[in-house]
Amino acid sequence: GPESAEVKGKPEVKLEQPVEFTCSALSLPPAKITWRINGTVIPGQTENVLILDKASYKDSGKYTCEASNAVTGRVATSSSYILSVKEEIDEGLSDGAIAGIVIACLVAVGASIALFFYCRAKVPVSSPY
């Protein structure tokens, strides 16, 4: 070994949630694991489980694990595993708030039209004769 390496985990997590990836590769003796994000080695991560305590936006990206066996000299790299870290978005305004804004806009437009006709009626028109 190692035979084909495989990464398993969640493809999407919320901001500041824990993340866990597992790398599996058949190997005798057990393979040494190297983790990469976007092609860059993650230092200090040599276990088959990669744990991120609190996911941040910088943790989004393409993860791969590389399994190597010093005895056989073989290296197996996993297919890419993409992680997205997302923030939960608030639903927005309630139906009542939207209705209130629409009514306020209609009242403002009506008041503007009424003021226009009121001011127009007050302007004296001089006779050309």
UniProtKB/TrEMBL annotation:
It comes from the Eukaryota. InterPro entries: Ig-like_dom, Ig-like_dom_sf, Ig-like_fold, Ig_sub, Ig_sub2, IgSF_CEA-related. SMART domains: IG (SM00409), IGc2 (SM00408). Gene3D superfamilies: Immunoglobulins. Pfam families: Ig_2 (PF13895). The chain crosses the membrane at residues 97-119. PANTHER family: CARCINOEMBRYONIC ANTIGEN-RELATED CELL ADHESION MOLECULE 5 ISOFORM X1, CARCINOEMBRYONIC ANTIGEN-RELATED CELL ADHESION MOLECULE 8. This is Ig-like domain-containing protein. It comes from Goodea atripinnis.
